[in-house]
Specification:
Layout (H helix, E strand, L loop, with lengths): L1 H10 L1 H4 L7 H8 L9 E5 L5 H9 L5 E5 L3 H10 L6 E4 L6 H7 L7 E4 L8 H14 L7 E6 L3 H4 L8 E7 L6 E7 L28
Parallel strand pairs: 1-2, 1-4, 2-3, 4-5
Antiparallel strand pairs: 5-7, 6-7
Helix pairs in contact: 3-4
Bound molecules: S-adenosylmethionine (SAM).
Length: 214
């Protein structure tokens, strides 16, 4: 698997941006940031050969959906074969900016988590903004809902690219080649459900109060 990853890096070094897949420690730290006790819709940007995907798939609720966005078609073929037996994992050989369109085609109004390994730091400002705005818009406005990134720099947080998110938590993972920041950007401020939405992001039926289905 690492050989395929290295081959794809040599073919598109800026897009793949890493010679080796994430370490076990980084994978665990990223997966720990999601609550898998109930069904979730999770999008993963830049799964590569699927190291984070395998861990998320192992932990997620049996009724969760995991949508993979990978622009490298050879990696997509590999991912498609790897997860062929799991109908809850779908592989999309498209740019991650197309999240709204893919969710809409699947009849999913929102997602609960977006996990990203794409190299944001090399993207120009307008591209960053496009992806970040669409990601924010598609996250359900509830307390658990978050955009989780692992990056060499923490510039999405420190340079204010994600200031539209309500709050952020970061940690540093030294046990990775190279070491990375793991940052979780929350869609909402606190631990209260957002009025008008259920736990799964569907609007609450009229007359059903303001606290959703919690
Ligand atoms: C640094 S690698 C991360 C791979 C894997 N997630 C890991 O942790 O080892 C980045 C991946 O993002 C993909 N990628 C880059 N830009 C993308 C975009 N705009 N949309 C979807 N995938 C993208 C690349 O093809 C590559 O597989």
């Amino acid at each position: 698997m690492s050989t395929l990853f290295l081959k794809r890096f040599l073919r598109s070094p800026f897009r793949v941006a890493s010679i080796v897949p994430s370490s076990k420690t980084l994978i665990r730290k990223v997966s720990d940031k999601m609550d898998h006790r109930i069904p979730r819709v999770i999008a993963e940007y830049g799964p590569g050969e699927g190291c984070h995907t395998r861990e998320i798939a192992r932990r997620m609720h049996p009724k969760s959906h995991l949508l993979l966005f990978e622009i490298d078609s050879e990696l997509c073929t590999f991912l498609g074969r790897q997860f062929a037996s799991n109908p809850r994992i779908s592989v999309h050989n498209v740019d991650c900016a197309r999240l709204p369109e893919v969710l809409s085609k699947k009849g999913m109004p929102h997602c609960d988590y977006v996990v990203s390994g794409i190299p944001f730091s090399i993207l120009e400002k307008a591209r960053k903004k496009e992806i970040l705005d669409r990601t924010y818009d598609m996250l359900v406005p509830e307390a658990h809902s978050a955009f989780i990134i692992y990056q060499v720099t923490n510039e999405l947080r420190t340079r204010g690219h994600c200031d539209h998110f309500a709050r952020a938590e970061s940690e540093y993972c030294l046990r990775n080649m190279p070491p990375m920041f793991v940052t979780k950007f929350f869609k909402t401020k606190g631990d209260k459900p957002v009025n008008g939405h259920t736990r799964n992001g569907h609007p609450v039926a009229a007359g059903n109060g303001t606290n959703g289905a919690r």
